[in-house]
Amino acid sequence: MEATESTLYKMITWIKKSDKGCNERHKACLDAGISNQKLKTMVKTRFASKVIMFQETLKYHNAINLCYGRQETQ
Fold first, then answer.
1. Which domain holds residue 46?
2. How many CA within 13 A on the CB side of residue 12?
3. pTM (2 decimals)?
4. Residue 66: which residues within 8 A CB-CB, separation 6 or more?
5. How far apart are CA 33 and CA 17, in angstroms?
6. Do residues 46 and 40 make contact, with C-beta atoms less than 8 angstroms apart?
7. What share of the chain is helix, strand, coil (3-state, %, to 5)?
8. How far is residue 40's CA from residue 1's CA, in Å, rounded to a whole number?
9. How remote is the C-alpha of 38 from its chain's centroid?
10. pLDDT band, very low/low/confident/very high, at 7 (cuts 50, 70, 90)
11. What gap in Å lies between CA 29 and CA 43, rounded to an integer?
């Protein structure tokens, strides 16, 4: 669980701070047919914040898979 939290945290941070990450996520959201809502980075010490992060990740899992799949093939 901690490894998953850490990976998601890094992924969301990369998307927020990187122009390339933001653009790639936007394209992936369009391809997945979902809105391009900003993901929230969890507050590491708050359980409720972690729950929200996981809920958003489940909602956007198709876009996240597309985005990361494209990164691996480049």
1. 2-73
2. 21
3. 0.57
4. 28, 31, 32
5. 23
6. no
7. 75, 0, 25
8. 18
9. 9
10. confident
11. 24
